[in-house]
Amino acid sequence: MTVISSTLDTNGPDYTANREAMLAKLAELDAEHAKALAGGGEKYVARHRKRGKLLARERIELLLDPDTPFLELSPLAAWGSDYTVGASLVTGIGVVEGVECLITANDPTVRGGASNPWSLKKALRANDIALANRLPCISLVESGGADLPSQKEIFIPGGAIFRDITRLSAAGIPTVAVVFGNSTAGGAYIPGMSDHVIMIKERAKVFLGGPPLVKMATGEESDDESLGGADMHARVSGLADYFAVDERDALRQARRVVARLNHRKAYPEPGPAEPPKYDADELLGIVPGDLKVPFDPREVIARIVDASDFDEFKPLYGTSLATGWATLHGYPVGILANAQGVLFSAESQKAAQFIQLANQRDIPLLFLHNTTGYMVGSQYEQGGIIKHGAMMINAVSNSRVPHLSVLMGASYGAGHYGMCGRAYDPRFLFAWPSAKSAVMGPQQLAGVLSIVARQSAAAKGQPYDEEADAALRAMVEQQIESESLPMFLSGRLYDDGVIDPRDTRTVLGLCLSALHTAPYEGVRGGFGVFRM
């Protein structure tokens, strides 16, 4: 039998303390998500409604098939910056007429839906997801274009938005634009480059230059409707493929466009899957509040995979990394999960072999992070930790099966790379509120700086200021601690969202379904040179 036998004591003090710590972090997370949901605030939401318009998430809800989930991506974008949490843009994956689509919607309650630097990063990330997974793109457009005060950070890289639309189309991935309001200046190219365009009567405004700019440039007197109204584009310019009488009609027409796309998944849907043997609610009490305390990742695996069934690979070798095979919502997965935090040579070699096997079998990989990095020290350096760690990173870098990553606890140093961190292009990466990620732990980093400063003073024959050293260490620890927290990292789009641990199975299931829209094949012998 390969069903995991849980030893989690849900009545014990450790479990209770872990659960309380996680619930406190989730409460903080909910408060930040509420900021994104609030958009520009009550004043601007009221103004938007007074104009008879739907909010961005209401538009998405009407677009989606009834009673189907919406996997929102990067909801905390711009957290910790001068811009509104959410970055004036909603992105995510949802089902429209039975087709999984990548949906973006400008939030016009935030500075008229204008794009800021974080909106741009969020939109580009959404485009990457659509291209990698062959998901049709639906843009619900209402934006005044670039947020002009920050144009220096938007204009040059912002051209990638329009490049991506054309590349998606060239790859046979449908693009649909529904214009609810302004889509002006550079934003006019979003409908201009989309495969299908729907505009709303007396609402849509699509032009390269509005009446004031036209007056300044040419002296011509004009108005919004004659320059770029929906009626003009439907009857005269031909830019509008469909003419809608109101927002609901536009969304109805968008659904009909998707219904006629003939867009098919590369793989059939999996059969019924047996749920885990253990309650997902118990995931709240597994990760300790202090990440220096180890936990068994098999307790997590037992609560997310089908029937809690996990065929472990090399269970007696490299025991700080659990590897094995399972299914999740019927989809086969290979899982790599950090057990005791540190990665040694054995774990690195085990991981490299396991990744090769997954590629031979065309099985996606799931990385569950809780690592402080690769082991250091003379014994381990002499034992080849560098070349063995490089072997694992080589395998991750050149693997061609889809990768999914979840940061549960620590994800420090090169261990973050070896476990397929953001720079290694996982199809999706999510974090739990308990996660932390940085070049190393706060205490270790502050200690290293202290040792270097102490050695420098000694080399110069100068006395060392212990009081200043203590102040420096405290400052550095506080800085690194704050910069390693999941909301900080999510605000910079280093993940696709911070999720409730109880939702992990559902989120991963939605991701696995989406990635099976595109065909994939594992690498067959095409890895880089493995140093032995």
Automatic annotation (TrEMBL):
Domain CoA carboxyltransferase N-terminal, first and last residues per copy: 22-273
InterPro entries (alphabetical): AcCoA_carboxyl_beta, ClpP/crotonase-like_dom_sf, COA_CT_C, COA_CT_N, MCCB/AccD1-like
GO MF, one annotated term: ligase activity
Transmembrane segments: none
Pfam families (UniProt xref): Carboxyl_trans
Keywords: Transferase
Domain CoA carboxyltransferase C-terminal: 275-517
Name of this protein: Acetyl-CoA carboxylase carboxyltransferase subunit
